[in-house]
Automatic annotation (TrEMBL):
Pfam family, one: KOW
Function, as annotated: One of two assembly initiator proteins, it binds directly to the 5'-end of the 23S rRNA, where it nucleates assembly of the 50S subunit.
Species this chain originates from: Cellulomonas aerilata
Family, similarity comment: Belongs to the universal ribosomal protein uL24 family.
Gene from which the chain derives: rplX
Name this protein carries in UniProt: Large ribosomal subunit protein uL24
Keywords: Ribonucleoprotein, Ribosomal protein, RNA-binding, rRNA-binding
């Protein structure tokens, strides 16, 4: 199970984009990779085509490529530095029933994510 989820703010801890921050756009669980906004940008050659209106498409585009999940770290909401992710179990009562819920916690500050 990945501790990083879509929409999280992460920092790159290794690779050519080390030190950059960005939001997670997509999590690929099968390959253990994440796509981060503004990180690991590659040039992609797109074949020329036409849209329904007749405008030309294609050319050279820069897009974000997936990066391995071990090369990113969640940003602590309090200290704005990288942190590990832990879990805390809470008892929540709804409609007279108690349910155990796992809450993600930043190890650095102890705050909920």
């Amino acid at each position: 199970m990945a501790k990083i989820k879509k929409g999280d703010l992460v920092i790159v801890i290794s690779g050519r984009d080390k030190g950059k921050e960005g939001r997670v756009l997509e999590v690929l669980t099968e390959t253990q990779r994440v796509v981060v906004e503004g990180v690991q940008r590659v040039t992609k050659h797109v074949k020329a085509g036409q849209t329904a209106r007749g405008t030309r498409t294609g050319g050279i585009e820069t897009v974000e490529a997936p990066i391995h999940i071990s090369n990113v770290m969640l940003v602590d909401p309090e200290t704005k530095k990288g942190t590990r992710v832990g879990y805390r179990s809470e008892e929540v009562e709804r409609d007279g029933r108690t349910k155990t819920v796992r809450v993600r916690v930043a190890k650095r500050s102890g705050k909920d994510i």
